Amino acid sequence: MALRNLDIDLLRCFVTIADLGSFTRAGERLGRTQSAISLQLKRLEEQLGRTLFLRSPRSQAITPDGERLIGPARQILRLHDATVAEMFEPDITGSVRIGVPEDFATAHLPAVLAAFTGAHPLVELEVTCDLTLNLLERFHAGHFDLVLVKRQPTQERQDGVRVWREPLVWVARDRQSVADFARVPLVVSPEPCVYRKRATQALDAIGRNWRIAYTSTSLAGSLSAVRAGLGITVLPLEMMPASLVAVGEDAGLPPLYDTEIALIEAPGLSGTAHRLAQHIIAALERGA
To answer: What is the pTM assigned to this prediction?
Structure first.
């Protein structure tokens, strides 16, 4: 049986459509017209003998065959792009401005960025940590090339590519920290904060009274307050320190929705910034 080869450009087109959820956006990203993008996808589907997207006038949904292809396609593109960078672009330069939520930057991002700068030492990274809503405001004002933001998972189309998803938990000093309180003492970040809103909405939904016991602008400050027994907080499960405990229904607390992190790229992104974006997506893919 003759070997079959998949075209790298066709795979890149497919992955870009899947990431951006739009043929038009994929065309803008890849520098092609919408009709050219449609033609490339059709060629890939003909090569595979599979339908990868179900299209309608207003949207497209990835099929089960498309879901089977997306992971291997990303791996192929990652290896291809890394090889090209090693052989032809070892000295890419430039600066990239990136905005990141502090807790995510502390827990997951340093190793990812270190790997990128290790491979491309001439690239300068400017990383800013802030609350998600502040990051989005500054991103839309043109202050960042890339931004990582917290958001609630939804079936509706959202900007950006999801790079991480994990459950949220209530975090306390011990299991007695909330049991005897008529009003739940919350340790939170200042408004606007996604986790703060998630916590208060969840408590309101079950009719449990709460109060803001401690407000901190930093993750370290919030954890110190929880350790001191001043209240409880909300964190992604992987970010909960071993010295603290997760509490839940046994303490009269409601379940919390998962959280996810999305990467959004600014229009007209430089090649260097786009390469960093692809590196972040690939490196964090396991958590998504």
So the answer is: 0.62
